[in-house]
Structure formats: structure tokens, C-alpha cells
Design brief:
131 residues, alpha/beta, 24% helix
């Protein structure tokens, strides 16, 4: 079953990648019941943001607190590959937690979704819905 992503969330991911280029953009995928409703930009605090991403922990903690208070759940994360493909890199695979969250990776205006499964990244199909 494909994941659904609102068109506004997809547009946010692509715009963040363009805005942060040549650095990697990053952020959170928020929603519920397999629907990504919001892509929330976050600061990339990695030491070398041209080649790596690290989501600002304050943004991540605030999103989890909001979810516990009835807000949208943290379904996953997004980041860009300014010079690579929209697929998990060796660094992504090394950093993966195997927690089942969704990773959206954007490269050259293309967004691909991946499930961070215990056995490694699995490609996900998705439908874009108005919103």
C-alpha cells in the first residue's frame, strides 16, 4: 500500500533542498495513519552540511512533545543529496536506526521515499494528494 503525501509537504521538501543547496537540507515528516501531512524544515547542524545532515535536536524534541499532546506524529525525516541520487547513501545506511520510520530523500528535484527497516532501507511507493 503506497504512502500518501500532501502536495504541500512535497513542495516544502523540494523547496528546502533548493534553498539549502549546496548544503544538505533536512527536516521532519509529520502526520498520522500513513499520511505525510507536513514536512517541517529543520536546521542542519552537521559539522560538514555539504555532505551530511543532522537534524537540530531541539526541533525533533519539540515535534515529539507536540505529538504526545495530540499533534501530528513524527513519521520520519527528509534530507537532500545535493550531488547524489534520491537513494540512501552509505552514510545514510550507517546512520539508520532500523526503526521503521520513513525517509524522504530529494536529489535533482526528485523525491524518493524509503522505509528504514531493520533489514535495511526498503523503497516505498507514494501517492501525492491535494493539500
Amino acid at each position: 500500500m503506497p504512502v500518501c503525501i500532501l502536495s504541500s509537504a512535497l513542495a516544502t521538501i523540494i523547496a528546502a533542498a533548493r534553498r539549502q543547496h549546496p548544503n544538505e537540507a533536512c527536516g521532519l515528516l509529520l502526520g498520522r495513519d500513513g499520511v505525510i501531512a507536513i514536512a517541517q524544515d529543520a536546521a542542519n547542524i552537521a559539522a560538514a552540511p555539504q555532505h551530511h545532515f543532522e537534524i537540530d535536536p531541539a526541533t525533533l524534541v519539540a515535534a515529539h512533545r507536540a505529538a504526545r499532546s495530540g499533534g501530528p506524529a513524527v513519521l520520519g525525516y527528509f534530507h537532500s543529496h545535493p550531488t547524489g541520487a534520491a537513494a540512501p547513501s552509505a552514510t545514510d545506511r550507517a546512520m539508520a536506526a532500523g526503526d521503521g520510520r520513513i525517509w524522504a530523500i530529494v536529489a535533482a528535484g526528485t523525491v524518493a521515499l524509503w522505509r528504514d527497516a531493520p533489514s535495511g532501507f526498503e523503497p516505498l511507493s507514494y501517492d501525492v494528494v491535494a493539500g
